Amino acid sequence: MKNPIKLLIVDDSRLMRRVINKIFDASNNIQVVGEAANGKEALDMIPELNPDVVTLDINMPVMDGLTALKHIMIRFPRPVVMLSTLTQEGAAVTFDALKYGAVDFIHKPSNTQPVSLEEQCSTIVKKISLAAGVEVGTIRYLRTKTDKKTTEPGQIKCNYICAIGVSEGGYGTLLKIIPQLQSDLPAAILVVLYEASRHVDAFARYLDDNSPFKVKRAVDGESVEAGFCYLVSGKQYVTFHSFYGEYSLAVNAAPFTTHKGGINMLMFSLAEIMKEHAMGVILSGSGNDGAEGLQEILRSGGTAIIQEPKTCLYKEMAISAIHKCKAASVIPDGDIAAEINKRFSV
């Protein structure tokens, strides 16, 4: 029988620790092996308990959650899930936690949430289970690059286009890639991210503040320039177009918001126009969107990269793409940016 996941709960509220502990009472797959009231206590307990996953609150006395997270990533790398009232989707502190190495985030269970307590507890159990499946060697404290962006639109010719498709688990994965790209690459990056539009807006601003590349939301009819990363919500369809050597985007609302198809659509249009100058990248996510589009990019002479499933929070998209695209390079998330830099460097 498979050993249960060993969980360490870190929260300054004794009541909340009891509530979180109780969530796992009925689980045969997760065993709470310890509780800590602050980050310092957690750091003292980790070597002894050797938990598979750690949940961290943000606001705690003695040592707060973000400080503890940095220490864990450097000293005892392992999956950490932020469990706090502050870690809401689209919040800067959530992106900070993912930047520092957390694999996921959850809001604390509360009666004020739009979903039932039962559903919230089920989500927590699921996310802890998924976190335990992320390969520990890939988790590290990310030092993002914030050096000045010196290139202006049109200054560098756009010779390559890279389309990235990502769904669940995408924030943390993209934070390992976009901030590590060289700002002088003769390439543009187009990202389809399956998150709500307002959260994609917030993430674009955060990425822009932490990246040499210029990051922005894609706009219908906009010219595509080298040195820019354009983010599109999965609730939109975006296609790539060329007119007399100039590239542009067509962005429209997706006709079927419950059906994932935006990644394939972008990659098919990119393969047709850019041929061998196209690159497709499939990252963490559920479902199989992007597998056929990536296959088309390869068929047209382009390059394909797939995130190593062991490093994905959600592995389905990557596994589906691997089955269809045997010629693709399968790379851990922490090495994808270096591969893009190498392929696109002048």
Automatic annotation (TrEMBL):
<dbReference type="Pfam" id="PF00072">
    <property type="entry name" value="Response_reg"/>
</dbReference>
<feature type="modified residue" description="4-aspartylphosphate">
    <location>
        <position position="57"/>
    </location>
</feature>
<dbReference type="GO" id="GO:0000156">
    <property type="term" value="F:phosphorelay response regulator activity"/>
</dbReference>
<dbReference type="InterPro" id="IPR000673">
    <property type="entry name" value="Sig_transdc_resp-reg_Me-estase"/>
</dbReference>
<protein>
    <recommendedName>
        <fullName>protein-glutamate methylesterase</fullName>
        <ecNumber>3.1.1.61</ecNumber>
    </recommendedName>
</protein>
<dbReference type="GO" id="GO:0008984">
    <property type="term" value="F:protein-glutamate methylesterase activity"/>
</dbReference>
<dbReference type="GO" id="GO:0006935">
    <property type="term" value="P:chemotaxis"/>
</dbReference>
<feature type="domain" description="CheB-type methylesterase">
    <location>
        <begin position="153"/>
        <end position="346"/>
    </location>
</feature>
<keyword id="KW-0597">Phosphoprotein</keyword>
<keyword id="KW-0378">Hydrolase</keyword>
<dbReference type="InterPro" id="IPR035909">
    <property type="entry name" value="CheB_C"/>
</dbReference>
<dbReference type="Pfam" id="PF01339">
    <property type="entry name" value="CheB_methylest"/>
</dbReference>
<dbReference type="InterPro" id="IPR001789">
    <property type="entry name" value="Sig_transdc_resp-reg_receiver"/>
</dbReference>
<keyword id="KW-0145">Chemotaxis</keyword>
<keyword id="KW-0963">Cytoplasm</keyword>
<dbReference type="InterPro" id="IPR011006">
    <property type="entry name" value="CheY-like_superfamily"/>
</dbReference>
<dbReference type="GO" id="GO:0005737">
    <property type="term" value="C:cytoplasm"/>
</dbReference>
<feature type="domain" description="Response regulatory">
    <location>
        <begin position="6"/>
        <end position="123"/>
    </location>
</feature>
<dbReference type="InterPro" id="IPR008248">
    <property type="entry name" value="CheB-like"/>
</dbReference>
